[in-house]
Amino acid sequence: MAKLPVDPAANQAILLQQMGWRTRPGILGHHAASPQSIHALLGYFLNDRDSPTPFPGRDMLLDGSLFEWGVAPPLEKVISSPAELALLLGLPEIYRHSVSVIEPWKNVGINLQGEEVRASKNVAYILQQVADADTILYPMWESGIGNPKRLASILSAGIATIVEGGNPSAHDPASFDGTKASLDDILSLVDELLLHRSSSSGPSIFICLGHQLAAASHIRLIKRAVREVASLQRLSLDADRTAITALQSVCERIAEVGSALPVIKSGETLANGWHDTLFAVAPNEMVEVGTRRLLPYRRPRGSDHIPGELHEAHALVADELDGVIDTMLKMERELNIEMFHGDEVNEEAALFANWAYKKLHDTLIPMRYEIAVSPLSWLLNLPYALEILSQTAVDEDHLTEVSTTCIYYKDWETHTIRRSFTCQFHPELMADIRDIGKRDGLRYGELKSNDGVRLLVRLLYHGMQE
């Protein structure tokens, strides 16, 4: 007897029931959450510091044993295998209405109590409490990364992507040993996330190690651009080679500056150009742990080794564009955040990346039609600029000069701006550096008064508008 065809919908329903996955976005409200309702509630949260929760009686009273990924709602959606990813792809009403969290490592470090800190749970808790926004976890250390470009396409279809922190170093491939995702694997995914910010995508927010990975990816993408431009002989719509010659000349200048730019900390040269391992990210002079005041970025003294044109390009971006965090520093009261890191993004690399992006962008504008039908079409996806927004003082003598950045994208035809953000600190952690489950979750009113939480919500709120 011939077998009856399997009903895919019935199979999906069985799998969803077995895994305990909800199929209605949101868990606190009487109605399903949507990107529009989530965005409105983020704005409601930011509007003041004393309005009541929109979900009265639903402040989570947590059972710490249940508030773990993969155990029970709202943390049930963990994508750690191809089968789970395939199941998720059949639920666009879920992944398009959720925030994705990428874990490069199983924790963001060990706190002073000797506990592993899984900060991704705090992100999930905050977003659920503030706006009933669901979170989907992608533990790269456990699942690996099969196809970075495809995964980035899936992630960018959601409300936002948050790349979390972790113990490894963005400059040390061996520090990722023992996991299913190597440093190069994760950087390949971050490369794609940086290239997937478009009018139809959500923003990316890179935290701590994520912030450092983004810095390394900026340099990787600029190197790739220089390499591929140099190897291309002609463009099909550029018969007299005017366009490709101009682009190659700019890329030669970028390579010249990048290869000669040193990274200097406390008088010691750590890198002699962009080919050095420590050019983008290097060990901080001192480990920085605890509450810090966020300070506006200032051009440092003793930076004569950095070409003036890099500083000038950054000053123009800072004057032209709004990076959200810099505006908060001008308008809000003192902002205090939680630092938890031993590596930092180098100021030289960030200034260089901004300058190189702007050089490429300004050169590509008049030739974008020729580029659009060439192997270099991916260059049109590059950021427009990278602004350093703030810094923190490690002690009286040392700064984390690049504590936050804004990654700007300018639409080629409409000139509208889109933004993604990076921060060295953990806006989702409280002063005790513990994850939700090991510590009590903050009530809505307490979240409203927390500087880090407000900053995280504001980045998401503004990024969703674009």
Please explain how this structure is put together.
By secondary structure, the protein is an alpha/beta fold. The chain has a single domain, classed as Class I glutamine amidotransferase (GATase) domain (Rossmann fold, 3-Layer(aba) Sandwich). The chain contains 16 helices and 12 strands. It has helices at 8-19, 35-47, 82-89, 92-95, 120-131, 140-143, 148-156, 183-195, 209-231, 242-260, 308-320, 325-331, 347-364, 368-372, 444-448, 451-464; strands at 98-103, 134-139, 160-163, 204-207, 263-265, 268-271, 281-293, 295-296, 336-345, 385-393, 399-410, 417-423. The strands form 3 sheets. Strands 2-1-3-4-12-11-10-8 form an 8-stranded mixed sheet, with helices on both faces. Helix 7 crosses helix 8. Residues 1-5 have low confidence and may be disordered.
**Strand sequence of the main sheet, in spatial order?**
2-1-3-4-12-11-10-8
Let me know the largest β-sheet. Answer: 8 strands, mixed
Helix content: 25-40%
Overall, the morphology is: globular
> Counting H and I runs of at least 4 residues, what is the number of helices?
16
Radius of gyration: 22 Å
Total beta strand runs: 12
> Which architecture would the CATH scheme give at its second level?
3-Layer(aba) Sandwich
Query: CATH top level?
Result: Alpha Beta
Rounded mean pLDDT is 92
One letter per element, helices H and strands E, the order comes to HHHHEHEHHEHEHHEEEEHHEHHEEEHH
Number of domain modules: 1
Query: CATH topology, what is it called?
Result: Rossmann fold
Structural class: alpha/beta
- At the fourth level of CATH, the homologous superfamily is Class I glutamine amidotransferase (GATase) domain
The low-confidence parts are 1-5
Oligomerization category of the chains in this entry = single chain
Determine the N-to-C terminus distance. 56 Å
The amount of beta strand, in percent, is 15-25%
